[in-house]
Amino acid sequence: MLGVQSGQSRTKRSPGIWETRGRTWQEGNGGTGPSSTEEGIEDFVGGTYVRFDAPKAKIRRSWPGVRDMILHRYVVSRVIWAYMLSIAVTYSITLCLFPGLESEIRNPTLGEWLPILIMATFNMSDFVGKILAALPYDWSGGRLLFFSCLRVVFIPLFVMCVYPASAPTLSHPAWPCLFSLLMGVTNGYFGSVPMIQAAGKVPPEQRELAGNTMTVSYMTGLMVGSAVAYAAYSFTSPATGTSFSTLNVRTPANATGF
């Protein structure tokens, strides 16, 4: 089908035969119109004919290969590697303790309310830490990584609040609440600052890629911390279950006098 633009007149000589400005052409089945060298557009004096049935030019799509994708991420990672490790270590240490180990802390006075109080303290302090991360301060990657690794001290502190189960080393309920407060503030702060500042260390065209790389590091830290917490619980729970089962077996025996 051929369309006419800019008021170009044409005269029909016979069925399927048209004449325009001295040019005669045929349309219909098997008919051909004026030849065009510019994708179906032909210029005439006083008007332009457009071939609407002309095939569209193929859009050439260029997708980066796997090798280019890995190379681009490697270049960005070389610049922000300290920020990547910092956020991964921060969340790994947090997930090692929260909520798994913290939920095992008990106290004769507070009973089952102590784990709830500890978790509420952590969530509120984590919120405060994220607000403090908005304060303008330019951290270097090395210092961020150092303070993130320093948070490993919370692991033995919380362990002393739980073990030994009969009489924990730090048995007062104020200790786990204090440790949870400090861990929440540092988690919110050192978990947000690397994500905020990493994008400013690369050129503008690479900031989106830097954000994606930091997200991968963040998810890796969560996965590692959860796996460590699950493994630690798997190693400690059978012994606890065995001691309780032995106690339950011996108690009736003592009660009956046998």
Automatic annotation (TrEMBL):
Entry's Gene Ontology cellular component terms: apical plasma membrane; basolateral plasma membrane; presynapse
Keyword Transmembrane recorded: yes
Compartment(s) where it occurs, according to its Swiss-Prot or TrEMBL record: Membrane
Molecular function GO labels: monoamine transmembrane transporter activity; neurotransmitter transmembrane transporter activity; nucleoside transmembrane transporter activity
A Pfam match: Nucleoside_tran
Record key words, sorted: Membrane, Transmembrane, Transmembrane helix, Transport
Region (Disordered): 1-40
Membrane topology, as annotated: Multi-pass membrane protein
TM ranges: 79-101, 113-132, 144-166, 178-196, 216-235
Biological process terms in GO annotation: adenosine transport; dopamine uptake; norepinephrine uptake; serotonin uptake; xenobiotic transport
Family per record: Belongs to the SLC29A/ENT transporter (TC 2.A.57) family.
Protein name stated in the entry: Equilibrative nucleoside transporter 4
Provenance organism: Stegastes partitus
